[in-house]
Amino acid sequence: MLDQEVIEVRQGIWIDERWLRDAGLGTCLRVMVQPGEIRVLAMPPQVKGEEPSREGWDVLRSLGCDAQPGRLSNAAREHDRYLYGKSQ
Question: Which residues contact 20 (CB under 8 A, 6 or more apart)?
Answer without folding.
Answer: 26, 29, 40
